[in-house]
Amino acid sequence: MLRSAEKPSGKARLQEILAELAATPERVVGITTATLFRMIDGGTPEGAPIALLIDEADAIFNAKSPSEAQENLRAILNVGYQRGQTVPRTVGQGTKIHVKRFRTFAPVCLAGIGRLPETIEDRSIVITLRRVKKVETIEKWRMNAGAEAAEPVRARMGDWAQATVERLKAGVDQERMPDELGARA
To answer: Would you tell me which of 19, 102, 103, 120 could form a disulfide with 37, CB atoms 3.0–4.6 Å apart?
Structure first.
């Protein structure tokens, strides 16, 4: 989760960079619950899972009294960290209505100003960004150059994931987990 206290602090730019590193990125803003779980369940046209990069997440959750739609979206994001979780929905028409279980497991990067619901934040790696000060200089980001620079990094990450896939599927080595991390973390 990318968070800042104000705009512009680089959240969208960091998502642009992450999109260059992810195997199958999907950058979205203003996503609805129905769209979210259908995109996750559908993956890419090739069948690969997608990595969702959701900008303006604060706009989704900023109401003082959350709507049912916000609560459904929050619930799906909350369970999406774990393989096997689904959201059941009825689909079809007329006499052909049936229940379909949409998968919800996907890597997600939310970006927003301020805090998001606690149940989302405590399952997140939170990166707090700040606005660049006038006395600081940063290199300009150029999309083409960034894509070229990201390619070898993305390839190395893919090689590592392929070599480590069985250990990743088995889950985290509980004996090596730091004591500071609770069950949700």
So the answer is: 102
Q: Which amino acid is at 28?
A: V
Domain-wise residue ranges, the chain: 2-91+98-136, 139-170
Q: Is the pTM of this model over 0.85?
A: no
First to last CA, the chain: 14
> Which residue's entry shows tokens 């049936």?
98
What count of Cα atoms within 13 Å lies in the side-chain half-sphere of residue 171? 7
Topology at the third CATH level for domain 2-91+98-136: Rossmann fold (3.40.50)
Rounded-to-integer distance, Cα 137 and Cα 156, Å: 29
Residues 6+ apart with CB under 8 A from 107: 22, 49, 51, 52
| Binned average pLDDT, 10 residues per bin, the chain of 185 residues | 89 91 89 89 80 90 73 88 89 94 92 88 90 86 82 91 79 67 64
